[in-house]
Amino acid sequence: MKDPTQVIEDTTFRLLKMAVTRLPKDVEAALRAARDREDNETAKTQLSAIIQNMDIADAGVPMCQDTGIIVFYVKVGSKFPFTDDIKEALTKATRKATAEVPIRPNAVNPIVGGNSGDNTGVKIPWINWEVVSGDSLEIIAFPKGGGSENASIVGMLKPGVGLTGVKKLVVDNAMRYMGEACAPNIIGVGIGGGADISIKIAKQQLLRPLDDKHPEPEVAKMEQEIMKAINATDIGPMGLGGRTTVLAVKVDYAMRHPASLPVGVAVQCWAARHSKAVISKDLEVSYITHPLEGD
Amino acid sequence: MTEYHFTTPISEEEARKLKVGDVVYVSGEHVYTARDEAHERALHMFEKGEKPPVDFEGSVVYHVGPVAWQKDGKWQIVSAGPTTSVRMELFEDEFLRKYRARIIIGKGGMGEKTLTALEEVGAVYCSFTGGCGALAAKGLKEVRAYEWSDLGMPEALWVITAENFGPLLVTMDSHGGSLHKEMNQRVAARKAEVYAKIGIKE
Q1: Helix, strand or coil for residue B169?
Q2: Nearest residue on chain A to B22, alpha-carbon basis
Q3: From the CA of A84, how many Å to the nearest CA of chain B?
Q4: What is the C-alpha to C-alpha distance for residues B59 and B73, in angstroms, rounded to an integer?
Q5: Which letter, b or e, does each residue of A24-62 get, where b requires 16 or more Cβ atoms within 10 Å of its Cβ?
Q6: Sheet holding A185-193: strands in order across?
Q7: How far from chain centre, in Å, is Cα A16?
Q8: Same domain assignment for residues A155 and A238
């Protein structure tokens, strides 16, 4: 019998390694297409550097030194038999990836100072838990750099400003941080719920495939409108000018309180790194975003 | 746009040749990493009359927190893309006046205080493409020392020998030119057009 903690740890280690070295196919394709589309020389140079960097990273080098605070999205089936092992396995995999990939130690104690040195510590790695029906376990590793995280905001708007106010918040935010979030960006927007719910929804949108659109036409239209507006700013790759400021804008929502219109805006840099796997109750592993060679 | 290949230490005359839009590649032994805490420490030491472990004059100061590892007892830079430079706006003007570095590298650009100091001292700010850590590491050939390691890997002062490190795009020069300032104006000028796309009339 396989050791469940070991299987989850080994899987998570590979997820972290793949996430930090190889972009998901859709993101890579979008960046290549953006380079071909740009006619601004500076923008072309920036995107060419990004593509050259992806090619070098492919050999197993972290594409960006900033792999952020380590965050996982976990969907655990209510009948998955090894739930008790998950947290320990994710923490161990984080330590191992820090030493062996390697990834930069980023976990700093905000109260007494000091870097823990292994990307773990109080509440970190952060795990977003979701219990779903079924008997398998889905893990997404989501290393996201601090530069784009610093551009994320929550706005508690007055409901009277309506959806125009929501769009304005997202567009104004983009014109505020300019190139600081390593454009071209992907922007996730969460509307409704409360302050915490809106930003949680916003961040989850960053995991959607780039070419999908929201199933509700009103929301899909809003995604397109915001994207077109931000791409008309001329901010461009790295804020140095050009037509590619965002690769996608993804919006979702929850019901809101009559007196509140919370809006979470999560900003993702071009290095939109994530990697997903599913582990069955028999501990069989399927890698979704980064399949094993020969699969 | 002109392409330059400089070897450190870089003279004031060389730095003053550079204009916004030029591209620079840097080689040599005076390449140092410094973020918030290293800037702060260097300034404190100056005030106390102490000497930092390296000579910053004519150097290249890179805003980066690298990921590095030890192979056979020797440190190597694995991935080292730039960090957001505007955080260092608090320190950079004084740092430039006191230590006379000639090229500051980072991403996102810096503000008026730094621009004035660049003009005064004869130095430039270059942008390296954010997130391109693997590409940057290719030009950062050798780690000669890991100073101020008590600050932790990202904040320490890494002492590096560079070989054709670049392309570095000059985005702020010693003649008052700043592509970042120009971009702010360009984007502000488009605001009405941008707002029109989301149904706002200004």
Answers
A1: strand
A2: A42
A3: 32
A4: 27
A5: bebbbebbeebbeebebebbbbbbebbbebbebbeeebb
A6: A153-157, A261-268, A185-193, A246-256
A7: 13
A8: yes
Q: Which of residues 145-184 of A touch B (CB under 8 A)?
A: 145, 147, 150, 164, 167-168, 171, 175, 178-180, 182
Q: How many domains does chain A have?
A: 2
In this complex, the residue of B81, B108, B152 whose CB is nearest that of residue A115 is B152
On whether both A191 and A104 belong to a single domain, the answer is no
Q: Say whether both A178 and A262 belong to one domain.
A: yes
* Residue span of the structural domain in which A138 resides: 4-22+63-145+273-287
Using CB atoms, which residue from B67, B152, B190 is nearest to A65?
Answer: B67
ipTM above 0.85, yes or no: yes
Active site residue B180: no
Both tokens of residue B106? 């980072």
DSSP string, A210-257: TT---SSHHHHHHHHHHHHHHHTS---GGGSS-S-SEEEEEEEEEEE-
A226 contacts in B (CB within 8 Å)? 198
> Which pTM value belongs to this model?
0.93
Asked if residue A193 and residue A251 are part of one domain, the reply reads yes
B187/A147 touch (CB, cutoff 8 Å), yes or no:
no
CATH number for B40: 3.20.130.10
From the candidates B39, B63, B175, B180, give the one annotated as an active-site residue: B39
pLDDT in tens, A189-247: 999 999 999 999 999 999 999 999 999 999 999 999 999 999 999 999 999 999 999 99
User: What is the span of the domain harbouring residue B113?
Assistant: 3-196
Backbone φ/ψ region at A162: left (φ over 0), alpha (ψ -120 to 50), beta: left
Q: How many domains does chain B have?
A: 1
Please state, in angstroms and rounded to a whole number, the distance separating the CA atoms of residues A230 and A177. 12
Residue in B67, B167, B171 nearest the CB of A240: B171
Q: Is residue B201 part of a domain?
A: no
Residue B96 lies in a domain: yes
Q: Predicted confidence band at A293 (pLDDT cuts at 50, 70, 90)?
A: confident
d(CA A49, CA B160): 22
pLDDT tens digit sequence for A101-122: 999 999 999 999 889 999 999 9
